[in-house]
Amino acid sequence: MGDYFERIVDLEVTGEEAGPLAERTVDWMVAEGLITREMSGDAMYSLTVDKGYLPGPDWRRAVANSSDPSRIPGPVAVIVGRDYHVGGQGEDVADFATCPRCDARTVIIDYPEEFEADEEAWQPFGDGIAAWKETGNGSAVCSACGAAVPVAEWQFGSGFDLGALAFDFWGWPPLGVGFCGEFGKRLGYRTEEQTGKF
After folding, report:
1. Torsion-angle region of 141 (φ positive above 0: left; ψ -120 to 50: alpha; else: beta)
2. I need a labelling partner for 69 at 20 to 30 A (CA). Which of 54, 81, 134, 195 fits?
3. Who's near 85: CB < 8 A, 6+ residues apart?
4. Chain-centre distance of CA 138, in angstroms?
């Protein structure tokens, strides 16, 4: 079985701006009745956050289909701080990375031939991400063009994103397109959506 989440990751907000932006976004969701100020850790498994905001009386306005009247979604976790975010289930590295300078693709997991990451191919990205998490700066050198590219600019495979702010909706029906669009406008930056299972 398992517990499912849908995540919205802000791809551009800085580490310094993430906290105030998170507070403004929570204020907006509370004002809209989508969540409450009450928090719980039940049915929530975000790795760096212990508690999330419980759904509000109008939570159905955020989802594409709320036809099941017995369904009550879980908490919404707000994750502040530079980190990598992974959708899906199990893997915590990207399957590939594309250089934004020359469009060369570095294959890290060679599906369907392999299901494990090539550690040597992943090493420069892992080191760059670790530095970025710590300082806000980190890069990986492209093996094709030789450019040292900030890791936040690399285009990673689907379900792997870097960001300083993310929102995990635990056990919610699929979020509506209109809500996701409005959410992105409220954040003011590019976003990416992920789904996954714990």
Report:
1. beta
2. 195
3. 7, 9, 79, 160, 161, 162, 163, 166, 194
4. 19
Q: Report residue 49 as tokens.
A: 């956050």
Given a cut of 60, is residue 126 above it in pLDDT? yes
Across the range 3-30, mean pLDDT stands at 96
- String of b and e for 40-53 (b: at least 16 CB within 10 Å)? eeeebbbeebeebb
* The length of the chain, given as a count of residues: 198
Residue 91: predicted pLDDT: 65
